[in-house]
Amino acid sequence: MIQRYTMLFWKNPCESSLEEIVDTSYNLLNLLKQFDTALSPKYLTAYNKGDIREFVFTRSNLFDLLEKSTNKEGNNTYLDLGRSISFFSSKFASESSGIRLTIGVNNKKAKNTFIVKPPYDVRLLIVERIDEFERLFKQIVEVFNPFWGCVYSNLTYVPHEQLFWKDARLSSVHWMNYFDNTTADTIGKDRMLSLPGIQKLEHGYYLKIQDALFDAEFPNHLTNLNKVNNLLGLV
C-alpha cells in the first residue's frame, strides 16, 4: 500500500450564519490555494468523469455553492448537519489533492470537519517545505478553531473515527497534532506540558512528535510515536 498523508480537523457544533460559514470556508480554501497550486480547490468532486466541472475560486461562487450544499434526504433538508463541499486539484490522480469541508453543523451529535489529502508524492510539497507546511497547519487551526487536528499517515491508522478517538477520549497522537484547551484538559495538561516541543497557541496546544516527516515504515518513527502516547497515557 502506498503511504499517503491527511490533514484532519474536527470542530464542535456551533451556531453560524451563512455569511460566517462562507467567510470561514473562503479563508480556509484560500490558505490552501496560497500554499501551493497542488492544494488548490480547482475542480468540484463528481461521481462521473463527465460531470467534473472546474471551480472558479471567488467568494461569490463559494457562496452560491455553499448555499445549495445542504444535507438532504428525500424532500427533507437538515440544516443542523451543516453544508458539505469537496474539491480536487488536478485531473491527474498522482498530482491531485482531495479537499472536503463540512461546516455549519450545530447538531450536538455531529461535528464540523476539514480534511485535506495532499498528492501521493509529498517530497516537494511537504518534505522540502516542512516549516511552511507546519505554518499552514497552524493557520488552519486559527481560522477553523477545531477542538482537535492532526496530520496522519494511512499506514499507521485506518481513517476510521474509533481509531482516532474511542469512548470520547483521544486514542493516539500523530505527526502533527492540535489539542484545544478542553481536549488538553481531558488528556491531562500537566502531562502535555511535560512533552518536549509542545507549543502553546491561542486556544490550545500544538505538538509535532519529530522534525522529519513521519514514516510508518521506519521503526524509529513508530518508536517516537509510541513514546509520546506512553507519556500522555494514551496506551
Give me the secondary-structure topology:
Blueprint: E1 5-11, H1 18-35, E2 43-44, E3 53-54, H2 59-67, E4 70-73, E5 76-88, E6 98-105, E7 112-117, H3 130-144, E8 148-153, E9 165-166, E10 169-170, E11 176-180, H4 181-187, H5 189-193, E12 199-200, E13 204-208, H6 219-231
Antiparallel strand pairs: 1-7, 1-8, 2-3, 2-5, 4-5, 5-6, 6-7, 8-11, 9-10, 11-13, 12-13
What is the N-to-C order of secondary-structure elements (H for helix, E for strand)? EHEEHEEEEHEEEEHHEEH
Q: Please report which band the strand proportion falls in: under 5%, 5-15%, 15-25%, 25-35%, 35-45% or over 45%.
A: 25-35%
Number of DSSP E strands: 13
Helix content: 25-40%
Distance between the termini: 26 Å
Task: Tally the helices.
Answer: 6
Mean pLDDT: 91
The gyration radius over C-alpha positions equals 18 Å
C-alpha geometry:
globular
State the domain count.
Answer: 2
Structural class: alpha+beta
Low-pLDDT segments, ≥5 res: none
Largest sheet: 11 strands, antiparallel
Structure description:
This protein is of the alpha+beta class and 235 residues long. It folds into 2 domains: 146 residues, no CATH class; 79 residues, no CATH class. 29% of the residues lie in helices and 27% in strands. The chain has 6 helices and 13 strands. The strands form 2 sheets. Strands 1, 2, 3, 4, 5, 6, 7, 8, 11, 12 and 13 form an 11-stranded antiparallel β-sheet that branches. The protein has a two-stranded antiparallel sheet with strand order 9-10. β6 and β7 form a beta hairpin. The two termini are 26 Å apart.
